[in-house]
Design brief:
Number of strands: 3
Strand content: under 5%
Distance between the termini: 78 Å
Pfam families: ThrE (PF06738)
Keywords: Membrane, Transmembrane, Transmembrane helix
Structural class: mainly alpha
Helix content: over 70%
Family: Belongs to the ThrE exporter (TC 2.A.79) family.
Order of helices and strands: HHEEEHHHHHHHHHHHHHHH
Number of helices: 17
Largest sheet: 3 strands, antiparallel
GO molecular function: transmembrane transporter activity
Radius of gyration: 26 Å
InterPro entries: ThrE-like_N, ThrE/Ser_Exporter
């Protein structure tokens, strides 16, 4: 019969394993690459006293064992987290690492994380997604009729997403149904000469469904030698693109749309300030839709603005999407990491994730995939263009992270040097004070 001490040790180990599994699963749900999840879980495990913790993360869940050969716990990641929930997750992790939260309280906080209600309410979330799509339209297709249609179409898409919440079977159909609905309206308006450039109008309407983050995270995981996770994310992202493209293709078939309507045509903006207004609307929509805390708004907006400017610079320097995508991803990765250091309450992913709506690799993929239905002869060119843009973004993320890490190491070295210098000055001052004191042991 096991002793009470043994039972107590087993109970403590089980609780620690559950905590690490819940933490890792929440990080996976927050769209962290699996190599970052594994590194962070191991770091927390070392703090808890388990230096040999074994961790295996996948896009769908995580396995955790405290020692080699010990029992393991598997935890599913479940649905994705909002930026507000990611902020709470970061707070729990920081409190664990600082010793301000015990394991039982941390487990309770992590298990109730998903029940956290939207900060601004359900309808604010729907309107936030609509405003975000309108902002994307102001950047991608800044025509009056186009932006008005995107506002209506994206509101319908947000209603469909809200209706499908908790209905897994219907949610699977959402990409195709939403793409068909938005495309049907855009093609109908274009056929009646009420709208120009329908393809670039459809994309902002369904931007909330684009798997850009999934595709780029998959490429980053492949670059980090996590082939299983990277390949599965890429496959999932490509399937989502195909579902969206299928909906658009069916709408085009119903409306008998000519091939010319699939052209990548951008209307002229009625105001030179419209892209800036679009960026501001996009920032506002993301903040409201994902319930970002008020105090974090300037930081998230700052990263978005920096990413936008980097992409503009890339377009001026290279004239191609690859250079623009690389610079945008580099700046987004570097600035989001820097912001998380300057503002400890800001998780890096909260500052970084909104940048995916600007980089929009999913938009290029959807546009190219849809064109294949009209012109199958472009298959090789299309596949190469998608791969090169995704690779450019993935490399930008990796170089941005590496550059920030180099700066971080340099700053830490400088802090240590300054601390040693202060310590030497303190020792020298103490020696001078001691030397200035009279020697009381000397005879009078």
């Amino acid at each position: 019969m096991p002793s009470s001490t043994s039972r107590s040790a087993n109970s403590v180990a089980l609780q620690s394993r559950r905590l690490l599994a819940y933490l890792g699963a929440a990080m996976v749900a927050a769209s962290h690459p699996v190599h970052e999840v594994e590194d962070e879980v191991r770091r927390v495990a070392r703090f808890l006293g388990y230096p040999d913790c074994q961790v295996g993360a996948l896009p769908t869940g995580i396995n955790v064992a405290l020692e080699t050969g010990d029992p393991a716990t598997y935890e599913r990641s479940g649905a994705g987290l909002t930026l507000d929930q990611i902020t709470e997750l970061n707070s729990v992790r920081r409190q664990i690492m600082s010793g301000r939260m015990d394991e039982h309280s941390a487990i309770t906080a992590l298990t109730t994380l998903r029940s956290r209600k939207p900060r601004f309410g359900r309808w604010a979330t729907i309107l936030g997604g609509t405003v975000m799509s309108l902002g994307v339209a102001g950047i991608m297709q800044p025509g009056v009729a186009n932006m008005l249609y995107v506002t209506i179409a994206s509101f319908v898409v947000m209603l469909l997403l809200d209706f499908s919440s908790g209905r897994a079977m219907f949610r699977t159909l959402i990409p195709t149904v939403a793409a068909f609905t938005v495309a049907l309206g855009a093609f109908a308006l274009s056929a009646n000469h009420l709208l120009i450039g329908p393809m670039r109008t459809i994309l902002p309407g369904v931007v909330i469904l684009l798997p850009g983050g999934m595709l780029v995270t998959g490429m980053a995981e492949l670059a980090a030698n996590h082939a299983v996770a990277g390949a599965s994310r890429l496959t999932n992202g490509i399937i989502q693109l195909m579902l969206l493209a299928f909906g658009i293709s069916v709408a085009a078939w119903v409306m008998q749309v000519p091939i010319s309507e699939f052209a990548n045509f951008r209307v002229s903006a009625f105001s030179s300030a419209l892209p800036i207004i679009g960026l501001a609307l996009m920032c506002l929509g993301i903040m409201v839709m994902d319930s970002v805390e008020w105090r974090l708004w300037p930081w998230v907006a700052g990263v978005l603005v920096a990413t936008f400017l980097a992409q503009l610079l890339g377009q001026e320097l290279g004239g191609s999407g690859n250079v623009s995508s690389f610079l945008g991803a580099f700046v987004a990765s570097f600035c989001s990491s820097l912001a998380s250091i300057l503002q400890p309450n800001l998780p890096r992913m909260v500052a970084f994730q909104p940048s995916f709506w600007l980089i929009v690799p999913g938009a290029l993929g959807l546009f190219s995939t849809t064109q294949l239905g009209a012109e199958p002869s472009l298959v090789l060119t299309t596949v190469i263009s998608i791969i090169t843009v995704l690779a450019s973004i993935a490399m930008g993320l990796l170089f941005g992270s590496a550059a920030f890490r180099a700066v971080q190491i340099a700053l830490e070295a400088e802090r240590r040097r300054a601390a040693r210098a202060r310590r030497r000055q303190q020792i020298n001052r103490e020696r001078k004070r001691q030397a200035a004191r009279p020697d009381r042991s000397a005879p009078k």
